[in-house]
């Protein structure tokens, strides 16, 4: 697949971006008839080879770019590369992409062994998008996308940068470890969960787990000059009562110099057949004012919330989630919590596969929307909204528009957007 991409811009560079987009579109049309090839070299299988040709704005300068993105699969081992070349008419090739150890390292989009909990050893190095420790009371769907440019210590979104994070798990019969590091080149955030399975000899309860967690961010906050440590300790358990249909769980966590929380509940999933499935959960928590449930989540690296000193008020929180999966083509999910002494929290996500619309209207249209707001009553704080819309132009060409909006805990606004033409060949 070849991608011709245009990123959101301002001012006099607009026409230059359009010229680049026209050039990329013609190149896509020229290349698209090529037949797919999957060579095999000594057992290494080239599973796919995507690419991106386009332009983007970096530090108010426009650069053309070419990215080659092959993916390899060899048994349980998967690897994706991203080899960039960026240049403009004034500076030539952008040297900043290749003058540091982090630049060479980040040509690896990811290297992964197995799937989480599927094998005794699981690891993923590179892009981390949905990392969770235990029940997700402290770390839930963490993504290591950072808005910090580590070379210039800038506190801004850098979509051209990749953070080389890692998750490494050991899953043995009697227990194991789960780990997270945000960036192995310049580490700042570390997470560890140790767990045991004390009931392995009992037929129904053999998967019961008791875990202990420790997570710290040595540079918390939205200001890169702020050297505040953010540390969280916790423990958890879960007891599968009836396979995956019903599970009882409980958690306790303490944010150092802030607040603590305790929660418990029941969750499960069911489906009449594999193509129709519903997952659900109901829970209850007691949180101090400055305890943040699921603190390290998908928006943490952008919003960077900082819990402050402890207050005496304790919140009693009711929460629940429900997720629907229909024919593996439509997924809809909600998480909601509310408390007497704090504001409601909402997460929602909708994904519609482009073949759903094609079956009805003969036009391929795909939709993916994610929304996360930690305080519904604060209209412009702690908000994450991402959308992606795919429109099929022909059998092998799609137009894709992506947009991300963020408001951090100080109300500062960030936005990135791009439009691309994807050609499968």
What report would you give on this structure?
With 425 residues, the protein is mostly beta strands. The chain is 8% helix and 52% strand. It contains four helices and 26 strands. It has helices at residues 14-31, 101-105, 300-303, 354-361; strands at residues 2-7, 40-41, 44-58, 61-74, 77-81, 83-88, 92-93, 108-113, 121-126, 148-149, 154-155, 165-171, 175-181, 189-196, 209-217, 230-242, 246-255, 260-273, 276-288, 314-326, 330-339, 342-352, 365-373, 383-392, 397-407, 413-423. The strands form two sheets. It has a 21-stranded mixed β-barrel. A two-stranded antiparallel sheet has the order 10-11. A hairpin with a 4-residue loop joins strand 17 and strand 18 (260-273). The radius of gyration is 23 Å and the shape is globular.
Q: Summarize the main sheet.
A: 21 strands, mixed, barrel
Estimate the strand proportion. Answer: over 45%
* Anisotropy-based shape: globular
The quaternary organization reads as single chain
Q: Report the span from N to C terminus.
A: 6 Å
Structural class category = mainly beta
Q: What is the count of helical runs? A: 4
Taking pLDDT < 50 over at least 5 consecutive residues as the criterion, the unreliable ranges are 3-14, 26-44, 150-157
Rg calculated over all Cα atoms: 23 Å
H-E string: EHEEEEEEHEEEEEEEEEEEEHEEEHEEEE
**Mean pLDDT score:** 80
Q: Into which percent range does the helicity of residues fall?
A: under 10%
**Would you report the number of β strands?**
26
